[in-house]
Design a protein that fits this description.
131 residues, 2 domains, three-stranded antiparallel sheet, 33% strand, elongated
């Protein structure tokens, strides 16, 4: 503990507490300014289609503060989308592939603060048990 107090006393000789406070305030103001700009980034969204849960890679666009809220502060893990809202094609008996454009529209309507620019291909999901 004595070494720590000596180190702090040594630092106070070279670094002013006012300088550190103003430096921290400048950093916070700079960061707030940067959050006001528009950005585009990749984001993985968990999607729940009638009980089938999978991750989809999306490219999203929006203000920095909105992207920060979605990526860091959002606790919603999976976005529920009913199959009736999506376009799909049958790839073989009981398996479907969801149309990426319809999935993008469905995600855009649920993520209102940001724009979903593009959606990667969704995996093939099984909708019926094989007999």
């Amino acid at each position: 503990m004595e070494r720590f107090k000596a180190a702090v006393a040594q630092l106070r000789r070279y670094i002013s507490p006012v300088f550190v406070t103003l430096f921290f305030a400048a950093f916070v103001l700079w960061y707030i300014t940067k959050l006001g700009y528009d950005y585009t980034t990749d984001y993985t969204v968990g999607v729940d289609v009638d009980g089938h849960v999978f991750d989809v890679e999306c490219k999203i666009h929006g203000k920095g503060v909105d992207l920060f809220n979605v990526k860091v502060l959002s606790k919603q893990r999976n976005i529920a989308v009913p199959l009736s809202e999506l376009g799909f094609e049958y790839v073989e008996w009981g398996n479907i592939r969801i149309d990426p454009v319809s999935l993008q529209r469905a995600l855009s309507s649920r993520m209102t603060d940001i724009d979903v620019v593009s959606v990667a291909n969704a995996p093939v999901i099984e909708i019926a048990e094989r007999e």
